[in-house]
Amino acid sequence: MRTSIKLTLAFVACAGIATYTQAAEIQYGALRAQFGDTLHIEYRGPSGPQHFTCTTAGTCTPHGTTTPRMFPTVLGTDSYERSADGRLAVRPFTVGAMTYHFLYDISTTPPRQIALVPFMRDGATIHFSRNNDAVIFREGLTFTRYDITTRGVTTLTLDQNLAFLSISPSATYVTGYNYTTLRHEFWRFSDGAKLNGPDSMQSYIEFSEDESRFAFLEDVGSFKTLYTMHTRDLGQERPVSLQRVTEPATETEDYLFLENTLYFLANVNGPLNWDLWSFDGSETELVDTDVSYGDFLKRVRGNNGSYLAYLKNEGRNSHLHLLSHNPGAVIMVRPVADSPKSDAVIREVRVYGERTGVLLSPKRPARNPDLFIWMHGGPQRQVAVGYHPYLSYAVYDELLERLVEGGHYVFKIDYTGSTGYGADFRRALHMRIGDVEMQDVRNAIHELDRDLRIGRVHLIGNSYGGYMAFRGIVDTPERITGAISINGVSDWYGLISRIPSSPFRTLFEGVPDLHNLAAYFQASVFTGMEQLTDRNKVLVVWGENDSTVPVWQSTNYIEFAEAKGVNVKALSFPDEDHILRKRENLDLLCLTITEYLTIPGVKCEL
Asked: What is the pLDDT of residue 236?
């Protein structure tokens, strides 16, 4: 297989830019719906949501904070199940004990009824085949397929629940992953046959348009590696068509066929470099660099052709890009004003303490500048060189940028447990909470001390990173001056004992009992708190509507810390959840940090 580079795409910017917020605001776009050549794009940010309808040619119309009404009324409502391209719709209509399902072509004016589907039960989930040839009704393990052309009905019943369920483009197969046999299964509608797919890691099956090939992930050296295979080899123990697409030590984040070309996001050129690639069955090509994984790749079927829809960060914005499969040009849909990232900040991917991260340096350092260590949540997340693909992290990138503009340094660290470095790196954190990842932080600070002329050191993080801030200041009180925990966990034992369903329980291999009690005690943030002096300051920040980390994780910490005489300060937001979203609250967070920790030179207002 030959790998080549393709960077000769033509970019067309969207016309009719409407500025609805200040140019410096964070604005993250996402494709919400499609109706022919019309797209509904929503921008979200600290100043609130804004909606636009845009064409596949790139012209846009603003709708303010109101969601646009794109779809026609069918039998009294515009709320019904639609095909991905917005052309077909199924409108359930209940009369007495019977539920009728009317199939409409809604691309015409007025909408045209195609058929009354012979499926009369209520409560099924409705799916459309990718090519709009069939409608599928799912009831538990049973799938009923209605062929729109022949009007024939076939039924398929699986023998057990499968994960990652998907339907092939022509609705020939229902596929899913069997956690018992650790392999993919393909169930054929025509005869109900079950065909075994490849043994592989848990992942979804993605079919080419003609259903001749499919893609999936396999664990190779603990990395999510992309493979393709021909459907003709289903059921074969050693399929001759099995082909590896991505190289070793590469993580694949998302993959999708547009017609018969496979597109995928992978960090081929380094753990923080997520690029868009294509594979035509024989060679891979680099399509675009620094692509966002903040949303899935999507298909757009317009009246004049098909497009691959993906997101790409531009400064503080994230914009929709449409790659035309033929002739290969990219249309950047950009209906909002530019929001450039700060030009007073130098951004470098650096390794400190054997851990990759991003060093943010001021072009004009302050005298005796402070150093902030940023620790992301998750822990299965990673940092970004610029603004993060996730809006929930971009708001903190803005905060860190402001600290650097004030003359201080920030190191955003990918500690043990972070994603993008393979499964072994992620799993290395299990049963070692508060040990291995905190050693990463200490090692990084030690090397940063040698590399930079810095004064005080502060830890800052959200969620799991908030826990690390709590833990770090009791680990190294002589070097850590400040800790800022945003919606952080403080008591793992209490959290998982009271909420056994918490996803964090996997880090300790279950709820507290004799086999993992030592791991829970090792993770404590309270041991060593008596060593803290008045110079060690802890800022505890939380949203009072947090549905991920309970509020009592913050309030109990404050109560305990105050009893121990710790210099602790609380900042709560009654109108926030686990993710801080609002402009006034983000500005107040910045202001509180700079005043409480006495950080000079920082401007907190937008």
From this structure: 85
CATH superfamily of 345-596: Alpha/Beta hydrolase fold, catalytic domain (3.40.50.1820)
pLDDT at res. 329: 87
Show me where the domains of the chain are located.
2-333, 345-596
Residue type for 261, please? T
- Whole-angstrom Cα distance, residue 169 to residue 159? 23
pLDDT of residue 327: 66
Kind of pairing, strands 88-95 and 50-55? unpaired
Give pTM, 2 decimals.
0.93
- Whose CA is closest to 376, among 430, 436, 315, 441? 441
Which CATH number does 2-333 carry?
A: 2.130.10
Helix (H) or strand (E) holding 398: helix 391-405
CA dist list (Å): 425 to 221, 247, 520: 11, 18, 21
The whole-number pLDDT of residue 498 equals: 95
DSSP 341: P
DSSP class per residue in 354-394: TEEEEEEEESSPPSS--EEEEE-SSSS----SSS-SSHHHH
B/e letters for 364-396, b = 16+ CB within 10 Å, e = fewer, are eebeebbbbbbbbbbbebbbbbbbbbbbbbbbb
Q: Which residues of the chain have pLDDT under 50?
A: 1-21
Handedness of CA 309, 313, 319, 322 (dihedral sign): negative
What 3-state class would DSSP assign to 436?
Answer: helix
Strand-pair category, 317-324 with 305-314: antiparallel
SS3 string, 491-536, reads CHHHHHHHCCCCHHHHHHCCCCCCCCHHHHHHCCCCCCHHHCCCCC
**What pLDDT does 8 receive?**
38
Report pLDDT for 443. 98
Give the model confidence (pLDDT) of 502-529 as tens digits.
989 999 999 999 999 999 999 999 999 9
The Cα–Cα gap between 44 and 65 comes to 10
Q: Encoding tokens for residue 473?
A: 């200041």
Rounded Cα–Cα distance for residues 401 and 62 (Å): 30
pLDDT given for residue 22 in this prediction: 54
Could you give the strand order of the β-sheet that contains 173-178, starting from the edge strand earlier in sequence? 163-167, 173-178, 183-188, 194-199
Tell me the C-alpha distance between 18 and 543, whole Å.
Answer: 32
